[in-house]
Amino acid sequence: xxxxxxxxxxxxxxxxxxxxxxxxxxxxxxxxxxxxxxxxxxxxxxxxxxxxxxxxxxxxxxxxxxxxxxxxxxxxxxxxxxxxxxxxxxxxxxxxxxxxxxxxxxxxxxxxxxxxxxxxxxxxxxxxxxxxxxxxxxxxxxxxxxxxxxxxxxxxxxxxxxxxxxxxxxxxxxxxxxxxxxxxxxxxxxxxxxxxxxxxxxxxxxxxxxxxxxxxxxxxxxxxxxxxxxxxxxxxxxxxxxxxxxxxxxxxxxxxxxxxxxxxxxxxxxxxxxxxxxxxxxxxxxxxxxxxxxxxxxxxxxxxxxxxxxxxxxxxxxxxxxxxxxxxxxxxxxxxxxxxxxxxxxxxxxxxxxxxxxxxxxxxxxxxxxxxxxxxxxxxxxxxxxxxxxxxxxxxxxxxxxxxxxxxxxxxxxxxxxxxxxxxxxxxxxxxxxxxxxxxxxxxx
Length: 445
Description:
Layout: H1 2-16, H2 19-46, E1 51-57, E2 72-77, H3 82-87, E3 96-102, E4 109-114, H4 121-142, H5 148-156, E5 164-167, E6 173-176, H6 178-212, H7 215-220, H8 225-261, H9 264-277, H10 294-303, H11 306-334, H12 342-362, H13 369-374, H14 381-388, H15 395-423, H16 433-444
Parallel strand pairs: 1-2, 1-3
Antiparallel strand pairs: 3-4, 5-6
Helix pairs in contact: 1-8, 2-8, 6-8, 6-11, 6-12, 6-14, 8-11, 11-14, 11-15, 12-14, 15-16
C-alpha cells in the first residue's frame, strides 16, 4: 500500500507542477466567465456602429416607410443613380444599397441588398423584417377594412408568459426553469465526456512513455505491476479532481464578481433600448433578448440543487474515469508507441461517443426506456445519468447505477491488470486482440 502511495504522490506532484496544468487551471474559468459576459458586451457595442444603407426604390411605396434604428439607417436616392452607385460603391459612405424593382410578369416586388463586402446577418434580417412589415401594411390596406392594421398590431402584441412550477413531496411549490436544467444536464454530460478522454489518454500516454523509455524496467524491480498501474490511475484521477474543484471555485468567483460589477440596470436599460428601437420588425427574437436577465439566470441556477448534483457528478466522474482509465492503461502497456494504439482505442471510445449522443437527447425524454437503460449500463452511465440528473431521477436508479459502475470498475481493473503485467515488459512484437487474450489467460495461471 505504501508503494502505491508513492506512485500516486509522484504522478500527482509531477503533473500539477507542469506549466500546462497551471495555465489550463487558471485560464479555463476566465474563459468560461468571458463566454457569459462578452456576448452581452458585444451586443451593446455593436448597436452603436451606424450602418448607412442607400435605397433605390423604383416601386415608389417604400420611401418614408422603412424605419431607422440605432445602428441602421436608410437613405433614399434617385433611380438614375444606381449605375453610378455600383461603379463607385467602394468610395461611398454606404454600407450597402437596397435595390427595389417591380417584376412585370409576376407583379411582385424584387429586393436585392448589394455590397462590396459580406453583409452581416443582423443587417440582412433587419432589412428583411422592415420590407416584410411594409408589404404586410400594404396588403392590409388593400382589404379596405377600417382600423384593420391596428387590430392586427394589437393581436401581434399579445404575449403569454408561462411559469413552470415543480411540486415537492410536501406539496410546496418552487418555480423551475427547464432551460437552466437543460444547460446543466448538457454541461455535466460534456464535462464527463471530455474528462474520460483527456485524462484517460494521459494514463495511456504515461504508461506508453515509461515503457518506450525503458524506465518501467527499473520501476518494476521494486514494485508490482498492479501497484504501478493503480498508483498511476489514482494519481492522475487526483490531478483531474484538483483541477475540477479549482475550476468550480474560480468560476464561481468570476461570476460573483461579474454579478456585482455589472448592475442589473446596465444590461436591462441598454437591451430594452435596443428592443424598443427595433420592435417593428422580426430582427429581434421576442423570446430571447426581451426576456434576458443576467441576474434572473443566476437566481434560476441557485434554485437547482447544485450541491447534490455536484456530489453525484463527482461519484460518476470518479467511477467513469476509473473504468475507462483501466482500459487505457492496458492499451498503453500493450503497445510500444502511441501511434500503434489506435486499433485498441477505437473500441474504447465508441461507447463514450454513443453515451454522449444519448445524453444530448436525454433532456427531451429523461425517463424514456433508452435513457434509463443507458444510464444503467456502466460504459454509458457517466454521461447519460449526468444528463438526466437535473430532471428528478429517482434515487434508487442513481444508487443502482453507481453500484453497477463500481462493480464494473473492479472487474475492468482486474482484467486490465492481467494484461498490464505482461504487456508492460513486452517489446518489439506486433500486438493483436488474440495476443491480448493470450496474455490475460497466461496471467491467470
